[in-house]
Design brief:
The complex is a heterotrimer of chains A (about 200), B (about 250) and C (about 450).
Chain A (H helix, E strand, L loop, with lengths): L2 H12 L21 H14 L3 E4 L3 H11 L6 E3 L8 E2 L14 E6 L2 E2 L4 E5 H4 L4 H4 L2 E6 L4 E2 L2 H7 L7 E5 L4 E2 L7 E2 L6 E6 L5
Chain B lengths: L1 E4 L3 H6 L1 H13 L3 E3 L9 H5 L3 H15 L4 E4 L2 H10 L7 H9 E3 H8 L13 E5 L2 H6 L16 H6 L6 E2 L15 H4 L1 H17 L4 E4 L2 H14 L4 E4 H6 L4
Parallel strand pairs in B: 1-2, 1-3, 3-4, 5-6, 5-7, 7-8
Chain C lengths: L6 H9 L2 H23 L4 H17 L1 H14 L3 E5 L2 H14 L4 E4 L3 H5 L2 H7 L3 E4 L2 H9 L15 H12 L8 H18 L2 E4 L3 E3 L4 E6 L3 H7 L3 E7 L3 E2 L2 H15 L7 E5 L7 E7 L3 H5 L15 H5 L1 H6 L10 H11 L16 H5 L6 H14 L11 H9 L1 H17 L2 H4 L6 H4 L10 H8 L4
Parallel strand pairs in C: 1-10, 2-3, 2-4, 4-7, 5-8, 7-10
Antiparallel strand pairs in C: 5-6, 6-9
Helix pairs in contact in C: 3-12, 9-10, 16-18, 19-20
The chains are: A alpha/beta (about 200), B alpha/beta (about 250), C alpha/beta (about 450).
């Protein structure tokens, strides 16, 4: 008998009885009694708690300016966002290893979650998944209109199986492994900056 | 009310004043109290150590002593918890089932059954640190556990103690962190038990408690051991003694 | 004969390190407080707990169906699904895949399951270099110790310990114990290993049957590096990690990090559905006693565990004695109810390394009756005739004495006399554990019973 058959047989033999029914999970849980404005400010506040930063910018040009301002010294800026050229286009990258020297990665997210201060990034957004974790710093463009209140809302919006990789990123990489002292920039991004700009693409 | 008085074994041996206070208090509140003189122990020490075979004798004897009462009252949450929820080393005869149902812990008897709203004979002009045992908090439901953030605050022990004139409550940092007695744990896991006791005592001391008061003498036995070793200016007292208003 | 782990002795040695114990207790209690604060911001918390518990109970009572559904959907996405009955088979399957791809170096993120299976030493013995990428796990790997906490594996160490360790292993400045410096040093040490690794391994927090994907939650993003850089990603998944639908996943994601550290989610919540562009994805579904636990009416609820660590954060015994005192992959209250199921002889003392305070049961996000299971495990240990420290306290003698009024009264007399007349030096000796840190109770003039007979008994 294969391992698969053995395990399934053992499980079938041992499943506890009576069987418990699957509960109905409500679609909606309120966040701050969820007003539209409340969602954006909740998002920004929570992002900051998680160690990230956010700025409102008017348009793609303003976004480019902001990135240059924040990362004036950066030599390698790799962008997955057509409106932001950077110094290297992600579509020219073949191998994740080629991203080892990226100082700033620029990506557009299509979903934000207020309760978590998180942005949703998929393989489609990143083009090369490693951009999200090998970049020393990350800049994520996010349209405030696509920020939802809770994780329940978020999971209802996304097609989880549609992309091989999907990441909720809430702030930069962090650790508290040494005496509980929170450090940002443990392995992945040292910083996460969200630029809140309408997406007219 | 006809009450059978359950005096836990360690109270009989080391803290008879708690048994006396409980008896006198119940009588003051109008109960007719009988004390089965041959009682020994509810079986908890053996049962909590997983030794069901060793607990059976004491459990059977407990049922025998109390089966003819309408209500049994004992000043110990851990013992009453054992009787109500874990007295299963013996056959669950009608007598056993009856005793398990009728056994009440003193605080819940005063608060829920007698609905006491005054102890007119009692005053206690002291700073009191109220220690609720884990059995009282998480098994018998006498106090809101701090883990259940959304449950509204309630405390049967506090409610009752508020009826005693002069009591000044002090707040501590960790309201319901276990004191470390834990039954045989106190000797089998001595280092951990002692450290837990030290931490709890220091928490009360830091906040200025003159007395640590509890409805569980087993916790207090352990804490007193620590207080005396550290020579701290604190005393322990059972709530029955405060409510009874008599000599301490 | 397996030598039993002695949690009490180990705890005693940790407590003797005053600064370590005080720091550990403070930091771990902080996590419990952060959990309380996070819960306070979620008014529907108890509703979520009930949902989470029921979802898990439903899944476990239909586990075979969900495993098959998961496998089917995962395979459709191009994931290669393997099955392993036990730890040894898991390791062999993993090695097989790695060897087949010519893997010489592997980078892995935190997986309690892989720890449970002893994967790292197994692979290292076969010539594969294995690097832990999670900072805490790497610290433990370099120290030759298992993790002491499910979420923060090196929380029992002071920064000075880490400085000393890194100076020896990574060549850092032994006098610099600043956590920023140490973390940065590890970042720079690990990064080249990520870039040169031939394969990345992860565990999985949840596996979603509806979609055939799985979720990995980290704060460092190390799982993401391991999955996105090397061309081969292998995930080890315990069969109890299944959840039915994406909708159910939301409930757990909201509860996991709040219970663990008090944050609404981890910094990285990563979802894997089939291989990435240019990569290959394998999952190994592992039983290793899980199906056996499923068949235990007393203990199957332990399979609901989402490995949040809330129980160990609140546990007064864990906080004082430290996670290494359990001598097992899983420490704290969850360890107490899991480990004896792996090896009852070896872990027979663990159920007694608890004061039965019950706090763990109250914080568990999936409502496992942890404290009640600890109590039941004691009966199992004693019922199997396994001599434990408690038996040595003379439970049988005690039980006999307390069953008989005459014996009880006689013992009381003897005890009273002994306590009254024995000199301090004799009373407080190494055979009297109570007396090591506490004063003995004073002896009253008479027992309650004597008082009653004298004052109340109408003859």
């Amino acid at each position: 008998m294969s391992a698969r058959e053995d395990i399934l047989t053992a499980v079938r033999r041992n499943v506890p009885r009576p069987a418990i029914p699957l509960p109905d999970v409500p679609s909606l849980f309120p966040l701050n009694q969820g007003k539209r404005e409340g969602v954006l400010s909740s998002f920004r506040k929570q992002l900051e708690v998680m160690g990230g930063k956010s700025f409102e910018v008017a348009d793609a040009t303003a976004a480019r300016v902001k990135i240059t301002e924040l990362f004036a010294a950066a030599k390698v800026v790799c962008s997955a966002v057509p409106e932001v050229p950077g110094t290297r286009r992600i579509k020219d990258v073949r191998n994740p290893h080629d991203l080892h020297d990226v100082e700033v990665g620029v990506i557009r997210s299509h979903l934000g979650v207020a309760e978590a201060g998180a942005v949703w990034l998929t393989q489609e957004d990143l083009v090369v998944n490693a951009l999200g974790v090998l970049s020393q710093h990350l800049v994520v463009l996010l349209d405030p209109a696509v920020i939802v209140a809770t994780m329940h809302d978020a999971y209802q919006r996304i097609s989880l199986a549609a992309s091989p990789y999907g990441l909720f990123m809430a702030g930069p990489s962090a650790t508290g492994d040494i005496e509980g002292v929170i450090i940002h920039g443990a392995q992945g991004a040292r910083s996460l900056t969200v630029l809140l700009v309408a997406n007219h693409a | 009310m006809n009450v059978g008085l359950f005096v836990p074994c360690y109270i009989d041996a080391f803290f008879p004043e708690v048994g006396i206070a409980t008896l006198e208090l119940l009588e003051k509140l109008g109960c007719s109290v009988a004390y089965p003189v041959d009682q020994t122990c509810c079986g908890q020490p053996m049962a909590n150590s997983g030794c069901q075979d060793d607990a059976a004798g004491a459990e059977a004897h407990f049922v025998d002593c109390f089966k003819d009462f309408d209500t049994v009252v004992g000043p110990s949450a851990s013992c009453v918890n054992h009787v109500r929820y874990n007295l299963d080393a013996i056959d669950q005869t009608p007598a056993t089932r009856k005793v398990r149902t009728i056994t009440r812990e003193l605080i819940e008897f005063l608060h829920d059954d007698l609905k006491v709203t005054a102890f007119p004979w009692a005053t206690f002009q002291h700073k009191v640190g109220l220690h609720n045992s884990c059995s009282a908090v998480r098994k018998l439901g006498h106090v809101r556990p701090s883990e259940l953030v959304y449950q509204p605050h309630f405390s049967k022990t506090e409610d009752l103690l508020k009826h005693v004139q002069g009591v000044e409550f002090i707040e501590i940092d960790r309201p319901d962190d276990c004191c470390g007695f834990g039954g045989s744990f106190c000797v089998t896991d001595e280092a951990v038990s002692a450290k837990m006791g030290y931490d709890r005592v220091q928490d009360f001391h830091r906040h200025g408690a003159e007395y640590i008061a509890s409805a569980d003498m087993s916790c207090l036995l352990h804490l007193k051991g620590v207080i005396d070793r550290l020579k701290l200016p604190m005393k322990v007292i059972h709530l029955a003694q405060i409510f009874n208003g008599g000599p301490l | 004969m397996t030598r039993a782990v002695d949690p009490e002795g180990r705890a005693e040695r940790f407590i003797a390190l005053e600064e370590h114990e005080a720091t550990h207790d403070r930091l771990v209690w902080d996590m419990r407080q952060h959990r309380d604060q996070a819960v306070a911001a979620v008014p529907e918390w108890e509703e979520l707990r009930e949902l989470a518990s029921q979802i898990k109970e439903h899944t476990l009572t239909h586990l075979d169906q969900y495993l098959e559904q998961f496998e089917q959907n995962a395979t459709k996405l191009g994931t290669q699904v393997h099955w392993a009955r036990d730890a040894e088979e898991h390791n062999a399957v993993v090695y097989d895949v790695l060897h087949g791809h010519g893997v010489k170096s592997l980078i892995k993120s935190k997986s309690m399951l892989q720890e449970e299976c002893g994967l790292t030493p197994y692979l290292q013995r076969r010539g594969i270099e294995v690097t832990e990428s999670d900072l805490g796990e790497r610290i433990q790997q370099l120290s030759n110790e298992p993790p002491s906490h499910i979420v923060v594996p090196a929380i029992h160490k002071l920064r000075s310990d880490v400085a000393e360790l890194f100076a020896k292993e990574l060549g850092t400045d032994p006098k610099n114990s600043d956590p920023h410096y140490l973390t940065e040093s590890m970042r720079n040490n690990a990064r080249p290993r990520f870039l040169k690794a031939d394969a990345g391994m992860t565990g999985a927090n949840f596996a979603v049957a509806e979609t055939g994907g799985f979720v990995v939650c980290t704060n460092e993003g190390n799982a993401d590096i391991g999955a996105s850089v090397p061309p081969l990603h292998i995930a080890s998944i315990g069969i109890e990690k299944l959840v039915p639908r994406v909708r159910d996943l939301a409930v757990f994601i909201r509860m996991l990090s709040r219970s663990a550290l008090g944050a609404p989610i981890t910094q990285y919540t990563s979802h894997f559905h089939g291989p990435r562009r240019g990569g290959e994805l394998h999952v190994v579904l592992v039983d290793n006693k899980r199906s056996e636990r499923l068949g235990s009416p007393d203990f199957w609820h332990v399979l609901k565990c989402i490995r949040c660590g809330a129980c160990m954060n609140t546990c007064p015994v864990y906080r004082r004695g430290g996670g290494l005192s359990y001598g097992a992959t899983y420490s704290g209250p969850i360890g107490v109810i899991l480990d004896p199921g792996f090896d009852l002889r070896k872990y027979r003392e663990l159920p007694f390394h608890s004061s039965l305070c019950g706090s763990c049961t109250e914080v568990c996000p999936v409502k496992i009756d942890i404290s009640e299971q600890i109590y039941t495990w004691r009966r199992v240990v004693i019922g199997n005739g396994l001599l434990t420290i408690t038996k040595r306290v003379g439970m049988t003698a005690l039980g006999t004495t307390l069953a008989h009024p005459t014996l009880f009264h006689a013992a009381e007399s003897v005890g009273e006399t002994t306590l009254k007349i024995l000199p301090r030096a004799v009373l407080y000796n190494p055979l009297n554990p109570w007396g090591k840190h506490r004063e003995m109770p004073t002896v009253p003039r008479q027992t309650f019973r004597h008082w009653y007979l004298e004052n109340r008994r109408k003859l």
